[in-house]
Specification:
The structure holds 2 protein chains of 2 kinds.
Chain A lengths: L4 E9 L2 E6 L3 E6 L13 E7 L2 E7 H4 L12 E7 L2 E7 L1 E9 L3 E2 L13 E7 L2 E6 L1 H5 L8
Chain B lengths: L3 H27 L4 H21 L2 H18 L7 H24 L8 H11 L2 H10 L24 H12 L3 E9 L6 H15 E7 L2 H5 L6 E8 L3 H9 L4 E8 L2 H9 L1 H26 L13 H25 L5 H25 E3 L1 H4 L2 H12 L3 E6 L4 E3 H22 L3 H6 L6 E10 L2 E8 L6 H10 L5 H6 L2 H7 L21 H10 L3 E7 L3 E9 L4 E9 L2 E6 L3 E8 L4 E3 L2 E6 L2 E7 H4 L13 E9 L2 E7 L1 E9 L13 E6 L5 E5 L1 H4 L1
Helix pairs in contact in B: 1-2, 1-4, 2-3, 3-4, 3-5, 3-6, 4-5, 5-6, 7-11, 13-14, 16-17, 17-22, 19-21
The chains are: A mainly beta, B alpha+beta.
């Protein structure tokens, strides 16, 4: 039987590595000017001009409850498209694209207990490293209720 | 045959026809004897029948067929136009509309047969229900009277005049063939005009068409029965055309006659013919004069048009938007002192993009008539239902609005007009008591005012009972009795726009169900418009809606708030003024300034927009203040610096940030960065 393989974009936040389903990634951009938008949640950094389209950008560190970090050369904005809702997420760096078998993904139920647990879909192990897989829909479900 | 590809066209055209049917029926009700209106209704019913039967919608075909029977009776004065007849015809219209909407949603016409309407039609037609149902079954093989197969004395079907003779003589000299071709179409042919078009194309390829009976225009409009005759000049012979035309489907018979000297000799002899030509010319003139008369009457005339998918226009619009952004960017680059040539080129580009934008906008503009046209019918129905005599006066139907606005404006207007008819206008007895005319009036006006289109709904009904509303405010616990007593009339009216604030004592079918003006207001504001309600108790009320001409590209003022750039739509801005911090006064803790004796509340943009600032703004001696208008109130927005006026393209912030307060959207500046557009309506 052929095992289901999925590709993940691997990126770094603080000291951990995370994975996001590549099908949901539109493009990866270098850091650019972000226009602040008032009256938005703390983790929304603002909006960017992505070749004529206005895209909201969130600080993924802030969303996951991590400490803030100054941007540097490695900082990237990953643009996601989830059911036609586009948004960007600021990450420390993007390292690689990884192929994973679905069976290697383990549930994190019971491991993470804080309020960010909804954002985590599972943990995958590859080449003796651990990747936290994000539940991207949940990241924006506060703002787009039909996502939850 | 797969009809799906024609379904859209069918729906679009049906809607147009139904709309014109609606208008004509209302006219018929007013002037039952107007034959041109009756003919128009007949024509529409006939066209709809043809279209429906082409698409295989049998119920719709049956209904229009029976309608046609009645209309034919009316046309031949067999049936008198009574209010009963008009009512039934209106029912037919409703039934047809529901067929069409069923077709829109499911692609099928549904199972409803409207037996009652068909029976009512049959009753009017005086032929009994049985005959009608029989006819329903045979609706497919209706026939129209045979074309009058007139043949002139020279053996030709076409009437030739002296001019034709000259042409024919010349052609014969150059040894060309002159042919008279008489084409009969199959009686089952449904798209006669289309078939005729194909035939004309075939003829055009091989010959020059000199004359046609009926005229080409009439044939295009399907104003012919099943045959037509043309005269052509050609190098080919009769046999060629016989073969060519007979190969076209649905052509039943082709008859060709070569025209020779013999035929035209007779013209010369026939002086009467010339006289009749002149006569004919005269009647042509008369006809033309009539046509102009019609145009003058504001009747529809068909322009040459192309149907374009709105999505394609949106794509075009987006491209123009991108072009404008790039143009602005280019202009910015040039400010660093480039050559004259460069500046001229940029100026030129600016002019062209502006024109291009205008042109694209115009394409997207639709007259408000498309929305207004349904109201006379609605008011007629309400008037019958409520037993009030109501006259609807409409003006400015030709005022144009962007398609996107038009699509949204219908519902709110229906609501307002219903309000006027139901709550506004009194019952006839009451009007008599109040010494008003028994007939209530509703005025619906549209006109352009600067960059806005204004739509007004006014009635001469009882107006708003301010004291009643005041009581209700207290009764609902929205304000204390003392506070309510202090409210001005204007403030009280504002409460009517609050959710579920209905003052109607009786809930009728029409209104008073708690979904009220607040929904209207939300909708109008979502379109970037404003709504205002004025009323004089006992005299009537007036609702004024102001809508932006377009939603996509606007003129805006760019300003700095702290270190951030914001755009304020120019249409809201009244003036810009510098004020001293010492001029600011306080009224109930609200900062206000006095400008030319007007008390203007201040809105500190930096605070509202949570802009972080290094220094306290109070250390500034002078504050720049943008005075904006919302409804007829003025507000002052404090800013830190002006950048300038610019044409901006409004972009949405996307689904994720759809409901952000104070921000109406975003725009991309010349430097590629994003600036937010301030939503003046919600910020003040």
């Amino acid at each position: 039987m052929k095992t289901e393989k999925k590709q993940y974009v691997v990126f770094r936040l603080a000291d951990e590595e995370y994975g996001a389903d590549i099908i949901k990634v539109t493009v990866i951009e270098r850091m650019m000017y972000i226009t602040r938008v008032p009256k938005t949640p703390e983790y929304i950094k603002g909006v960017i001009n992505l070749r004529g389209d206005i895209i909201p950008v969130m600080d993924l560190r802030a969303r996951l409850g991590l400490t803030e970090k100054e941007e540097d050369d490695e900082t990237r904005i990953i643009i996601f498209d989830i059911n036609n809702v586009s948004f960007g997420a600021i990450v420390d760096s993007v390292s690689e694209v990884l192929q994973l078998e679905e069976t290697k993904v383990e549930s994190t139920a019971g491991i993470i207990k804080d309020k960010t647990k909804d954002f985590i879909y599972g943990v995958a192990k590859a080449e003796s490293k651990l990747f936290t897989l994000l539940n991207l829909e949940k990241l924006i479900s506060d703002l787009v209720p039909e996502m939850s | 045959m797969d009809m799906n590809q024609y379904l859209d066209i069918f729906v679009e055209e049906s809607k147009e026809h139904l709309q014109s049917l609606n208008t004509s029926l209302l006219e018929l009700e007013k002037e039952p004897g107007n034959t041109s209106v009756i003919n128009e209704i007949f024509r529409v019913a006939h066209t709809l029948k043809g279209m429906a039967s082409t698409m295989g919608f049998t119920h719709m075909t049956a209904l229009t067929h029976d309608m046609e029977d009645v209309l034919d009776g009316v046309r031949s004065h067999r049936i008198k136009v009574s209010s009963e007849v008009v009512d039934v015809l209106f029912q037919c219209l409703d039934a047809l509309e529901s067929y069409v909407s069923e077709i829109v949603s499911s692609g099928q016409e549904g199972q409803e047969e409207y037996g009652d309407i068909i029976a009512a039609l049959a009753k009017i037609n005086g032929s009994g229900a049985e005959k009608s149902s029989q006819k329903t079954k045979s609706a497919q093989d209706w026939t129209i009277g045979e074309n009058s197969e007139e043949v002139y004395s020279n053996g030709l079907r076409l009437k030739l005049n002296i001019y034709d003779k000259n042409i024919i003589e010349k052609a014969l000299e150059t040894s060309m063939n002159i042919l008279q071709i008489h084409v009969e179409l199959d009686k089952k042919c449904l798209l006669k005009a289309a078939r005729a078009f194909i035939i004309f194309q075939a003829l055009d390829r091989n010959a020059e068409i000199m004359k046609s009976e009926p005229s080409v225009e009439d044939i295009e409009d399907e104003k012919f029965d099943y045959s037509f005759t043309v005269m052509v000049i050609t190098k080919r012979d009769a046999a060629f055309f016989q073969k060519e035309l007979n190969s076209i489907a649905e052509v039943r018979n082709v008859e060709t006659t070569s025209i020779t000297h013999e035929h035209i000799e007779m013209i010369q002899a026939d002086e009467e013919g010339i006289a009749s030509t002149i006569q004919h010319g005269k009647s042509d003139l008369k006809e033309a004069a009539n046509k102009f008369q019609k145009l003058g009457d504001g009747k529809k005339h068909t322009n040459k048009t192309v149907r374009v998918d709105i999505d394609r226009l949106d794509v075009l619009m987006n491209l123009v938007s991108e072009l404008i952004i790039t143009k602005t960017r280019l202009a910015d680059c040039g400010s660093g002192g480039k050559s004259n040539d460069y500046n001229q080129a940029v100026e030129n580009l600016e002019r062209i993009t502006t024109n291009l934008h205008d042109a694209v906008m115009k394409v997207r503009m639709v007259p408000v008539e498309t929305v207004f046209s349904r109201f006379p019918r609605m008011v007629r129905d309400i008037s019958k239902e409520l037993k009030k005599d109501i006259v609807l006066h409409m003006s400015g139907e030709e005022t144009e609005l962007d398609r996107t606005v038009i699509d949204e404006i219908g519902e709110p207007l229906i609501h307002i007009i219903r309000n006027s008819a139901d709550h506004g206008l009194e019952k006839p007895e009451k009007r008599k008591e109040r010494r008003k005319e028994e007939t209530g009036n509703i005025w619906l006006r549209a006109y352009q005012e600067g960059n806005n289109v204004v739509i007004e709904v006014e009635d001469d009904g009882q107006g708003i009972d301010i004291e009643k509303v005041r009581k209700k405010i207290v009764g609902k616990g929205l304000e204390s009795e003392e506070a309510a007593a202090d409210l001005t009339e204007r403030e009280i009216i504002q409460y009517l726009f609050q959710p579920s604030f209905s003052t109607a004592e009786k809930v009728t079918d029409l209104s008073g169900r708690g979904v009220g003006l607040d929904v209207v207001k939300t909708k109008i504001e979502a379109l970037g418009g404003t709504i205002e309600l004025n009323s004089t108790f006992g005299m009537g009320s007036k609702t004024i809606i102001r809508l932006p001409l377009t939603l996509a590209i606007i003129q805006a003022l760019l300003v700095m708030v702290g270190t951030e750039k914001y755009a304020i739509p120019l249409s809201y801005i009244r003036e810009i003024t510098d004020i001293k911090t010492s001029d600011i006064q306080f009224v109930r803790k609200q900062e206000v300034i006095v400008l030319r004796d007007m008390l203007i509340p201040l809105v500190r943009l930096d605070q509202v927009l949570e802009v972080s600032k290094d220094e306290l703004s109070d250390t500034n001696k002078l504050l720049t203040c943008v005075i904006v208008r919302k409804g007829d109130k003025l507000y002052g927005l404090t800013i830190d610096a002006l950048i300038g006026q610019q044409e901006i393209v409004i972009k949405s912030l996307g689904k994720l940030l759809a409901d952000i307060r104070y921000i109406a959207g975003a725009t991309i500046l010349g430097d590629g960065n994003v600036a937010l557009i301030i939503d003046v309506n919600s910020i003040v």
